[in-house]
Design brief:
CATH architecture of the largest domain: Up-down Bundle
CATH superfamily of the largest domain: MFS general substrate transporter like domains
Radius of gyration: 21 Å
Strand content: under 5%
CATH topology of the largest domain: Growth Hormone, Chain: A
Length: about 450
């Protein structure tokens, strides 16, 4: 079979670098959370909002971004996202107070919403069949390097200088991606009848924001507080109105018809469980190790690097295997393996020893994640026709981000109000249960696509 063309390779690298920026930011934030609180104050609530402010607008606007991507062109929207992400990263680095930082994180989430869906849409509209699975595997493996670079550089900057410098590292990959975009000769792909539902976006933001505010403030104020129950009620009503609107508008930002496709519907349910558990796990490890186990920001960031190394080394191969054998087996065994890894992390004790208490679980968790990510993405996006790749990618990304949003918002209830040793154990138990549920859902719902006799594109 002929090798991938120059244009195909260029598209893949643009998608990889653009997504790298968003993933890099996520790893830096977790490592920097204790230092941010030491500088700006606010305790666990500030830590939750620092993560959730970004996830709130990301989860809401990522759906609009899918429509914008289809309407205005994926390449153009990608460029907008890169520039916006650079500007908001600088605002975060300069924030003098926690509220200003949180506002900047809200704006950064909007910019981030323009990146990952457009990146994956470029891949899914360029590659099909086994070549698509291979491309997504390559994308997964290389973008996972952000989870190595982020904790290492971010932790060193926090320990040796200031957490503020950690947010400047986004500028380097952003510059590289913008330069590669100038080398691309492919014309932008647009959907003529695509429309942007800004009313739906507003309902989604209010709905998610109200629910998250209630979950974060409930441990501090109690359910009887007017602020808590009123925000929760308004959020629930607004989100219900958002879902209702999607059944009535001519151009929904979340086409519910997508969920009539079996692998798309069940795959997104698995995504909700798996990515919610991933967010909970990463937050709990980064904060507990620094605040209670007494390790440095760099050491806390490096604690889960083995997961990323395994993911980087294995994702491309797993993507190829899933392209040949189908995703169902991998999507079942992967989350179950991660459940075992999370359970092993409960070996952590007050007298902390990384090598015997945390590393075994981290290694097992990494194997499970590697078995899961590429097949999960391929199963979901490969089940939707290329013409709707943008909105399908946006929907799946929104599900994963909102799952993380809710998991972090509810962490105080999960851990019992404080991320001490007992709270850490409860967080790992919750992670294990959610992962096991994700594996069961995948086995029940996912079906392997019929084998084809030829692929439109060769492996990348």
């Amino acid at each position: 079979m002929p090798a991938a063309t120059r244009e195909e390779r260029l598209i893949l690298w643009i998608a990889i670098i653009a997504s790298f920026v968003a993933f890099l930011d996520g790893t830096v934030v977790n490592v920097a959370l204790p230092a941010i609180v030491d500088d700006l104050g606010g305790g666990l609530t500030t830590q939750q909002w620092t993560v959730d402010a970004y996830l709130l607008t990301l989860g809401a606007f990522i759906l609009v971004a899918g429509s914008i991507s289809d309407s205005f062109g994926r390449i153009r929207v990608l460029r907008w996202g890169l520039v916006g992400f650079a500007v908001t990263s600088l605002l975060i680095a300069a924030a003098p107070t926690a509220p200003i930082l949180i506002v900047a994180r809200l704006l950064q989430g909007i910019a981030g919403a323009l990146l990952v869906p457009s990146s994956l849409a470029l891949i899914t509209s360029t590659f099909r069949g086994a070549a698509q699975a291979r491309a997504i595997g390559t994308w997964t493996g290389i973008t996972s390097a952000a989870m190595v670079v982020g904790p290492l550089i971010g932790g060193l900057l926090v320990d040796l200088a200031t957490w503020r410098l950690a947010f400047f590292i986004n500028v380097v990959p952003i510059g590289a991606a913008l330069w590669l975009l100038t080398r691309l000769s492919t014309r932008d792909v647009r959907t003529p009848d695509a429309r942007v539902d800004f009313v739906g976006a507003a309902l989604c933001v209010v709905g998610l924001g109200g629910i998250v505010l209630a979950l974060i403030e409930q441990p501090n104020l109690g359910w009887t507080s007017p602020l808590v129950w009123a925000c929760g009620l308004v959020g629930a009503i607004a989100f219900a109105a958002f879902v209702w609107r999607q059944t009535r508008t001519a151009a929904p930002m979340l086409p519910l018809s997508l969920f009539s496709v079996r692998n798309f519907a069940w795959g997104n349910l698995a995504t909700w469980l798996i990515y919610g558990a991933l967010s909970l796990n990463g937050f709990a490890i980064a904060v507990y190790l620094q605040e209670h186990a007494g390790v440095t920001a760099t050491a806390a960031g490096l604690a889960t690097v083995p997961v990323t190394i395994i993911l980087m080394l294995g994702s491309s191969a797993v993507g190829t295997w899933a392209g040949r054998l189908g995703p169902r087996l991998f999507m079942t065994l992967g989350p179950l393996t991660m459940a075992l890894g999370a359970a092993l992390m409960m070996l952590v004790q007050a007298e902390f020893n990384y090598w015997w208490q945390l590393l075994p679980g981290v290694m097992v968790f990494g194997v499970g994640l590697t078995l899961t990510v590429s097949p999960l993405t391929s199963a979901i996006l490969g089940s939707i026709e290329p013409a709707r790749a943008g909105v399908a990618s946006a929907t799946n990304n929104a599900v994963s981000r909102v799952a993380g949003l809710i998991a972090i918002a509810g962490i105080a209830a999960i851990v019992g109000g404080e991320l001490d040793l007992a709270g850490f154990h409860r967080a790992m138990a919750a992670t294990a249960l959610a992962m096991a549920a994700g594996g069961l859902v995948s086995w029940i719902g996912i079906r392997n696509a019929p084998a084809t006799t030829a692929d439109a594109h060769s492996p990348v």
